[in-house]
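Extended Data, panel c. Modelled sequence:
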Amino acid sequence: MQKKFNIEVDCANCAAKIENAVSALPGVNACNVSFMAQKMLLEADDAQFQSVLKAAVKAAKKIEPDFEIEL
């Protein structure tokens, strides 16, 4: 499953760090974070998608506490 989310991230460097951290999580097939568009594209298996999304948000908040994802 692949979904695109509106996000709030404060800088391009943080967006790149978040993309790398989320991409390294187990269950993530692909992740793309765009600072300019304020979007995150997340691809993971259908059965695990909700748990992967929660882990992705947790990882992103460790990098940038102000990170928000609009579901």
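Helices lie at 12-23, 49-63. This feature is highlighted in the accompanying rendering.
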